[in-house]
Amino acid sequence: MEEGNQAMKLYSHPMSSCSRRVRLALNLKGIKYDCINITSTNHPELLKVNPMGYVPALVDGTIVISDSYAILLYLEEKYPLHSLLPQDLTRRAINYQVASIISSSIQPLQNMTLVNYIGEIVGPEEKLPWAQLHIRKGFAALEKLLMKYAGKYATGDEIYLADLYLAPQLDNAINRYKLDMSQDEFPLLIKLNETYSKLPFFQQKPKNQNHPD
Ligand SMILES: N[C@@H](CCC(=O)N[C@@H](CS)C(=O)NCC(=O)O)C(=O)O
Questions:
Q1: What ranges do the domains of the chain cover?
Q2: Which CATH number does 3-78 carry?
Q3: Which residue intervals define the domain GST N-terminal in the entry (predicted)?
Q4: Are the CB atoms for 54 and 42 separated by under 8 Å?
Q5: Residue owning the nearest CA to atom 20 of ligand 1
Q6: What tens digit of pLDDT does each residue of 91-100 get?
Q7: φ, ψ of residue 19 in degrees (nearest 5)
Q8: Residue 115 Cα to ligand 1 middle (Å)
């Protein structure tokens, strides 16, 4: 079978925010794919496509890509329809910035491996405060950054890359790490979270699996 005719395979976990970014992009662009749900980061099939043992990883014919940012850029170039980025250069840059803040300065600091490590070396009671500290710091920056650009969604009235990062990260912060988000501190992020929570598009995950990321 020709490479282009095979459905892509996405190694994913229902509760992983990094996987959710990619699933949202695939759905936004209307791309069919086979989802392989991974329940352990030592899963031999996952380790073959990503030796780090993290999800997500995408297999498209002979192409294997791990790391959500790389996957999203690949999808955007291969399937430009329903672009993940606005035309306007400034708003494009804001989308890159949101993605980068979440993927470099928030998510890795509250990833399961690290949070469990903090629990082991400092104490289990420090796991939540640690995660909350770093999420709050990143959210404070995002709140300021997006104030000038938000519309119905993070950077205007269309769903873009920034929303694909923000919606799962907000969900993680509020539901997993119990971050107390006050109206005074995060009025815009709270409003965006309400918007995401009401849209079935952003709510595509089973609720009954554990995967603290
Ligand atoms: N930069 C990577 C991070 C991947 C990552 O941290 N994935 C998490 C799920 S969101 C994971 O597999 N965590 C399992 C673990 O910490 O062992 C990406 O964006 O894909």
A1: 3-78, 89-202
A2: 3.40.30.10
A3: 6-83
A4: no
A5: 67
A6: 999 999 999 9
A7: -70, -35
A8: 12
